[in-house]
Amino acid sequence: MIGDHWTDESEMRRRDARPDKDHPRTIAVVTGTRAEFGLLTPVMRAIQDRSDCRLLVIAAGSHLVQPALTFREVKAKFEVADSIPMQTVGKVGRLHDVEALGKGIARFGRSFDRLRPDWLVVLGDRIEALGAAIAASVGGFALAHMHGGDRAEGVADDAMRHAITKLAHLHLAATRSSADRIIRMGEDESRVHVVGSPAIDSLGSIEPLGDAPYEELGSPKHVVLIHPTGRADEHEEHDASIVLRSIGDASAIVLHPNLDPGRDGIMRALMSAPSNIKVVDHLPRDRFVGLLKRIGANGGALIGNSSAGLIEASACQCPSVDIGDRQRGRERAELWTIHSECDPDGIARALDAITTRTDRSSDHPYGDGRAGVRSAELLARLDPHDPGVLRKLNAY
Questions:
Q1: Strand-pair partners of 304
Q2: Across-strand partners of 59?
Q3: pLDDT in tens, 50-86
Q4: pTM given for the model
Q5: In the Cβ-directed half-sphere of 37, how many Cα atoms lie within 13 Å?
Q6: Which of 305, 382, 392, 396 has the fewest CB neighbours in a 10 Å radius?
Q7: Percent of the chain predicted with pLDDT > 90
Q8: Adjacent-strand bridge partners of 27
Q9: Rounded-to-integer distance, Cα 160 and Cα 51, Å
Q10: Which stretch of DSSP H or E encloses residue 91?
Q11: H or E segment at 119?
Q12: Are strands 80-84 and 119-123 parallel, antiparallel or unpaired?
């Protein structure tokens, strides 16, 4: 099938072109969630800033699902070339995700055929990224994968992350350890590049939240962010309730979880949260980062099981308590993050230990904040139409 793709005469002419300001390389970036959009924004900006590249933004999946409808946030920052609906409101669970994935693959295929991008870029491990990766691989489009090779042993998404790695033609790893794991999976070392995490990019330009917006959010001591781990709703509700109780009388703000299986259980726990905990559906990234900085400066912490606790929070000098197995195995800035099992006493002890710690370090395992620029440079420089790009030989 790939061979037939390359015998097409128009495709032969297309791959011989080299990017320049008159014939820029078209790079389509797929975003499917609020969290991953924040990470991809610096990459999109860096692509947009290059005269030899043209950015196409494809918004998919949970961006298009009520109530938050974060598609508006994407449109406010970038022109959207296409939107790919996948999930259905009110349908959350593994089998519903299977249906959404199948719908997404077909719809991504039609989008790629219309847009004809030179490179496709996806990040992470969710069904939106997997659907785009499958459509790109089967359709004969060059695929770049960011944050491949990471470990997060507590969720099924980890298998999807590695599946995307095997489908990708270019690997933009966040850390050296992740790059090494990609190579051990049989990927050609020449295709693997350590760029850092784009989650670190631009954090320095965001100011701590000012008094007025901070008070509008209830002047919280802590931020809570709990995502499901794919278990039954009652298990997710039970653990989320434990996390909320462990905060005690301290004021906190808790964000809605993502759309993974088990979300409904966590939402039930949030709806029963005590009065000292303010529940909000979504915060734009700049406001979220500003809140982390304000809370970190006030002796508070991010509490939960989000990767933001291991990556963004520590880079913002906000301590974090990582609860349960969802992020087990993922690299972290150890002096800013502490792990706890999901029990009230353990969480309370961990919270006290991490917020009173004084031996901090500014070193961060996820890079120096230039992942977007490095990624854009690689995408501009590496020719996706070289026949060797799509023809992979895995070295097992």
A1: 225, 322
A2: 31, 83
A3: 999 999 999 999 899 876 678 999 999 999 999 999 9
A4: 0.87
A5: 28
A6: 396
A7: 77
A8: 55, 119
A9: 34
A10: none
A11: strand 119-123
A12: unpaired
